[in-house]
Design goal:
Elements: H1 3-9, H2 23-27, H3 42-46, H4 50-61, E1 64-70, E2 76-79, H5 83-89, H6 98-112, E3 114-122, E4 133-144, E5 148-155, E6 160-167, E7 172-175, H7 179-182, H8 188-206, E8 213-216, H9 224-243, E9 256-259, H10 268-283, H11 287-291, H12 296-322, H13 325-329, E10 332-337, H14 346-358, H15 364-370, H16 395-398, H17 421-425
Antiparallel strand pairs: 1-2, 1-10, 3-4, 3-7, 4-5, 5-6, 8-9
Amino acid sequence: MGFFDRLQNGWNAFLGRDPTKTTREIIGPSFSRRPDMTRISMRAARAKIAPIYTRIAIDVAAINIRHAYLNEDDQYLDDVPSGLNDCLRVSANLDQTGRAFMQDVVTSLCDEGVIAIVPIDTNVNPETGSYDIRSLRVGKIVNWYASHVRVNLYDERTGDHKDLIMPKRIVSIVENPLYAVMNERNSTLQRLMRKIAMLDAIDEQTSSGKLDLIIQLPYVIKTDLQRTQAENRRKEIENQLNGSKYGIAYTDGTEKIVQLNRAIENNLQGQIEALKTELYSQLGITKEVFEGTADDKVMLNYYNRTIEPILSAIADEMKRKFLTKTAITQGQSIYFFRDPFKLSNLTDLAEAGDKFTRNEIMSSNEIRGKMGLRPSNSPDADELRNKNLNKANNPSEDSGNQEEYDEEGYDYDPDQEGYEDEDYEE
């Protein structure tokens, strides 16, 4: 670009501002925290359950979910070039990518139990017929009606949360498949949260800074006068402790002080550990999964028992509400699949790549893509062929270069001595 073109088309972030307008007039209200971000309820966060929600949400969001074409055997063919697929792959809305949106969906699903996935921007009115989705938001269901729901949604135009009444037939209402374990009133997770809250309350009382002293006076307290004297003595000791730099007070030689702020013995910690073990077994999560040291069998059990049911619930509901019957008949669906190479080390990846290419399941360039390498320009790299075998000649291409053979298997050359046409014909 030339010098004059840069002057004419150049743009600077600090130039072109109208000094007469305030920030609110230009871009709207401001917030100290991100207003659209989903926050786990205080009770769940305080009970240290948030790491479970986050772990499940991250693992679900790591799996590819697409608006795709399927064949008659429900096998993946290709992506559908639609706005819904762009929302799932690239950008779900102004504030979230496709992956961040899926993590938001799962986190809200684990915390609330039931959530709504609402199409915000569409090319036509969704209630009139077929439509294409351009943006999606996760909403909290506030009220239930016969054929409608009241959903609390974030409005990106104003930066506020608003309640909207939406028809059920255009809103994906997803229920947590692990609702009985995580969200039911007397479920294992809710019981664990109550036990942890009780333990936290006891810890706060123990570490509140109170001395919890009992003063034994040298006389019997039975009359009102004696009670007044005892109360004055207690206040005097409190004033001595508060007014002292190091918290020191004195007493009479006949008085006796007993301290009570000892740790309270209970079995709450044992009950919490037992509930944790029971919850992890019901969710299919182990300690190794959180630490990242789980083997293939443990991870396969975790994906099959925890991740796959949540993904199926989301995909099935989106397929039921966002795709028309005509689209489903044409082979369109909401399809998800996990990349099996993500959990493989270099040795296993090399062995799997050799088996897949040798058995003509994947091409060399597809294996290179899984390893993060650039595709090869060689035409053989895109062929489904066993590279350990010699490439067969194509008679249609090599017919002019094929060598002619006689009946004995020798090369036939009509100009060579010892070969006569008559003899060769015989």
